[in-house]
Every structure is written in C-alpha cells, then in structure tokens.
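Working notes for the structural subgroup meeting. M.R. asked for a predicted model of this chain before we commit to crystallization trials. I am recording the input and output together here so anyone reviewing the notebook later can reproduce the run.

Input as submitted:
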Amino acid sequence: MSVTSDTVLSSGQWWNALAEERLLMLRCPKCGAAWMPFLPHCPDCGRGPIPEVVESRGAGRLYSWVGVQSSISSPDEAPFVVGSVILDEGAPIYGRLLGEPGAEARVEAVFVERGGRTCVDFEVVG
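Returned structure, recorded in token form:
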C-alpha cells in the first residue's frame, strides 16, 4: 500500500486496530461503496470526498478460495486455505479460511496471532 498525505487510514492504524480485534475499512460518503486496501479515493465513483473510516462487523460470504500446499513465508503452517471474502458491508478482503469452504458460505472474522502480530482469518459458519 502506498500511503499518501490524503490517505485517511494508514497501514499502522490498520494493524493497531487488528490488535484490538477491530476490522476497519473505508466507506465513500458519496456513493456508499466500502473497500480495502486503503486507497485514498473511492474505487467505484472515483476521486470523490474523503472516505470515512468505519468498522466492519467482520461477517460476510465466501467469494472464492484457493488451497496453499506449501508456503515460503509459513512452511510449518501449510497446507491452509486462503479465502476471498465479501464483507456484508461490501468490502472485499482476503484471509485464511477456517473450516470447509463452499460456494457462498457465510463466514465470520476471527483474530489470530501469527508472526508476532494480530491477523484476521475467516471461519465458515454456514
């Protein structure tokens, strides 16, 4: 992520919020779109007003997933599944998937410690 002077949420703020088990995203006050990563302007309607920082409930649906059989950064943790999740608020996010993946499965955020920092995974709930 490239943080510029007009980015309203920095990478450090994101990681600090995760450490507090809060999942932050941006919302466009013009069109209502929600997004991650933290681009300074709405990806839907373009360079609009400064986005609002909002907290997600962490619930959503599984859009797609991929199995990771070996990992250079986490060799002792493979195999694992990474899911593409669309949060109920509309923002897409990626995270490790806990449970059996399925098309359109409901998921909820789970905060886990990994590599000395808090990360967000998603647990299949239905």
